[in-house]
Design a protein that fits this description.
The protein is of the alpha/beta class. It is built from 24 helices and ten strands.
Length: 576
Amino acid sequence: MSYLVLARKWRPQTFADVVGQQAVVRTLRNALRRERVAHAMLFSGVRGVGKTTLARLMAKALNCRQGEPDEPCNQCESCLEITAGNAVDLHEIDGASNRGIQEIRELKENIRFFPSKGRYKIIIIDEVHMLTTEAFNALLKTLEEPPAHVYFMFATTELHKIPITILSRCQRYELKRVPFAELVAFFGRIADREEVTISGRALEMIGREAEGSVRDGLSLLDQLFSFGGNEVSDEDVAQVLGLVDRAIFENLARSLLGGDLAGCLALFEKSHAGGMDLKRFANELLGFFRALLVCKVAARPEELLDVSDKELAALKEIAGTSSQETLYNYFNLLLKGVEEMQYSSRPRMAMELAFIRASQAGQIVPVAALLGRLDALLATTAPLPPVARVSMPGVASAEPAPRFAPASASVPASPAPAAEKKTESPPEPPAAAEKAAESFQAPPVPAGRQVRRHWEEFIDYVKERKRWMAHVLRLCASARDEGSDLVLKFDDPSDCKVLEEHDNLKLLTEFAQDFFQHAFRIVFHVRGSRSDGEAGEEGESPSEERRALANDPLVQMASEIFGGQVGSIRTGPRSR
């Protein structure tokens, strides 16, 4: 007898044996138990996930005579014939080789007759999307109202190619890819029953290579059993399937994130010398960095990644050493490098160039973190009173003193010696130097600007630096100097609200200290508040009303646009 491959040997014979399709299996079993089975069913999904298997199980359950309504017994004559593939009342048709209208006509003539042995005739059409448009049209009426003894079951991997008129007449079941964990567990049970020793890591490599397809995984497992015999090692799996050890990607990611270009190139050379496919290597490396990014941003990355617990722990460890922006930047650089490699005549050099770019990128500090550091630095830096600029007769004007200086900084009492003097005079004795310092009197520092007299000039000064702040200052009712405080009085609390913000208040303080050459502290007073010291009034006085009209932003803006000025302000009844 010829050898029976694992994909056929371990095909599920009951609904309980189906792997990874619990939702579809539950629906089908409930339909059988409650006698609500649709006359036409369509199973769709990728290759090797159980479409034809579920159709055969439904055929068994419908014609089974001994078992439960929702589970075939696999012992009666009908179940045994379907398992062996020689059931008279089960017609399996390949849609690729029977795709014309003539085959559909013959099928319609055949289903008119009652079943020979079973209770129903079951028509299974595999790859039904291969039928022609004429064949689909010929099937429409029969599919909508088939005889009571006929059930149609379709299977397809390309659901989008089936006409909507066929889809509307079928009950659709979309099968998903088998989850990674369930696939690896299933392969482990198969290896135990075949009495083959294989490690969990090797099974994970096979499960990852199967990409959610049970049939693909069993074909790979069959190939490895033939290669390794009763014991299959991890090296056997990597050699037979042409895979790259996942440890190489882990080390490569650590080297890239650490800026170790030499280590990256050494690992790449090791993989290339082992005969790996460059395109496959690049795609798996991209997948690894995608997994790192998912581990960084997702609360439960195990739900989004098909990896083992050990590999997931390694991914979380690597992702924890870098910021989200860094991982995104590396992923983006490698993706561009892989795309360039696809069209390059020297793909290896293109990949190495991508490694060079990635290793030079370095760690990226988030903008929010930089702003936080800057705010903390500014909070700890206090401005000192400005230093007066002294002019000495016969000496060129010196550089202006900085606005901010360390606490230990001081202004020299005497000017530096002239540059043209090449000889130095002998140092004076200490007593003579102290006597000279006492007799020396610096010229008086010119008085600073006065607040009341130069207030309009200060507003123009602010306007050159912050235009919006100057318009707000024009709403100020009065400004006065109270020692170290610059008191700004406003009639409406909303006028000074924006100036009270931390950043704006700090900027206004700097402008005031620079212009008036005095270490002012800005203080806001609002009319009617307790801090103002005056009782609030129920109405505005004429002077206050005139002042408010003169400082209105619309009036100021109109004056600037048309180059005019306010001539007179009328607030009494005669102005209306």
